[in-house]
Amino acid sequence: MKLFYSPRVLDHDAAGEINRGVVGEPFERPERAANVAAALNNAGLGLLVEPASFPDEHLLRVHDKDYVEFLRSAHRRWLNAGRKGDAIPMCWRADRMRPALLPTDLDAQLGYYAFDIMTPITEGSWQAARASVDTALSGAAHIASGTGQAAFSLCRPPGHHAGSDYYGGYCFLNGAAVAAQFLIDHGMSRIAILDPDYHHGNGTQDIFYARNDVLYVSLHADPATDFPFYTGFADEIGIGDGLGFNLNFPLARQTDWSAWADAYGAAEQSIRNFSPEAVVVSLGVDTLSGDPLSKFAFQPEDFGRLGGVLSRLSCPVLFVFEGGYAIDQIGANVVRTLHGFLGEYIA
Ligand code: SP5
Ligand code: ZN
Fold first, then answer.
1. What integer pLDDT is reported at residue 347 of this predicted model?
2. Which ligand minimizes its atom distance to the CA of 253?
3. Cα–Cα distance list, 222 to 81, 97, 218, 286, 289 (Å)
4. Measured from the CB, is residue 340 less than 6 Å from ligand 1?
5. Mutational pocket test of ligand 1: of 18, 199, 229, the residue with most ligand atoms within 8 Å of the beta carbon
6. What global pTM score does this model have?
7. pLDDT digit string (tens) for 187-213?
8. Where would you tag: which of 23, 55, 169, 324 has the fewest CB atoms within 10 A of its CB?
């Protein structure tokens, strides 16, 4: 298995995160990626390879140009306005206010492009998010080259909450979506994205919602009780050409491996029926019991089982790292998943 990682993903380093109304230490912090990199290094799965630099054109297949330019310049504009620290939005447009025309004011633009307050734009956010996309693209290029059947891209910040023109849920640029689009642009006609992260990947869903060449399948905490709240319900099944090509499996809190695997059976069948040429897995390990943001009940050994069921998809698989906030355990759980996938399941 080919592994991709760049230390540039550590450059996004928020001073704080607003959660439950108070500023605390961020859940999404650089040590997450460092922990996963260290665990991969010790696991004997292969060397971590520095991703190549891809041109912006791949990114712009999925994200709007204005949005990308906003992300690239937002923190510089924040400092130029005399502000200190991280850029955080403060005001959003409610439904009956003036329809959303792109405003010019920085604070108005922050509210226009962000959908939450817990995703600060720091001095290094652009660098890290752009490196995260290169990491996803390197994995996609490896799969597209046909030389390998599997790759793991150690992306950070994560991506699945980011849409074509919005950020939130710790995500700025959607690596899984850029990677899936890259595979389509390199001759594949059907890509499935399977998203086992604890949270619904609203950005990925949104990007491919009207398309039938990319199937999006997500198992996640019910949005009735969990972030991102306003999307991720089972009746969101796609639109237009994409009708039937979006599948959500909202699951109750306390879902354990056995309940998750039941839902996965149906998810797997829908992927098989689609017969994808490759599968992109948005691998979040925030389903772990005790994850500080989550309420599922996976035990560590269940990640080996997860890898095992994913190996039965019998087509090339690109893993893109997403969530997981039990920082001391996420590396081991990524390794368990990959070992399970490779048939080297270790409890
Ligand atoms: C990629 C990813 O996993 N993003 C997750 C973003 C979740 N943000 C919302 C978290 C709110 C949780 N509040 C409860 C915290 C209890 N300690
Ligand atoms: Zn998550």
1. 59
2. 1
3. 40, 29, 11, 14, 16
4. no
5. 199
6. 0.98
7. 999 999 999 999 999 999 999 999 999
8. 55
Structure tokens at 17: 């995160």
Q: Are 204 and 152 in contact (CB under 8 A)?
A: no
Mean pLDDT, range 84-113, rounded to an integer: 93
Q: Please report the pLDDT score of residue 191 as a whole number.
A: 98
**C-alpha 124 – ligand 1 centre gap (Å):** 21
Residue with tokens 């990925």: 204
- Closest ligand 1 atom, CA of 168? 6
Q: Give me the pLDDT at residue 102, please.
A: 86
243 CB contacts (<8 Å, ≥6 apart)?
237
Backbone angles phi, psi at 142, to 5 degrees: -65, -45
Torsion, Cα of 150, 151, 157, 163 (10° steps): -50
Is 58 one of the annotated active-site residues of the chain? no
Tell me if 213 CB under 6 Å of ligand 1: no
Which residues are near ligand 2, the ion (C-beta closer than 5 Å)?
Answer: 197-199, 284, 286, 323
Active-site residue identified among 75, 160, 161, 220: 161
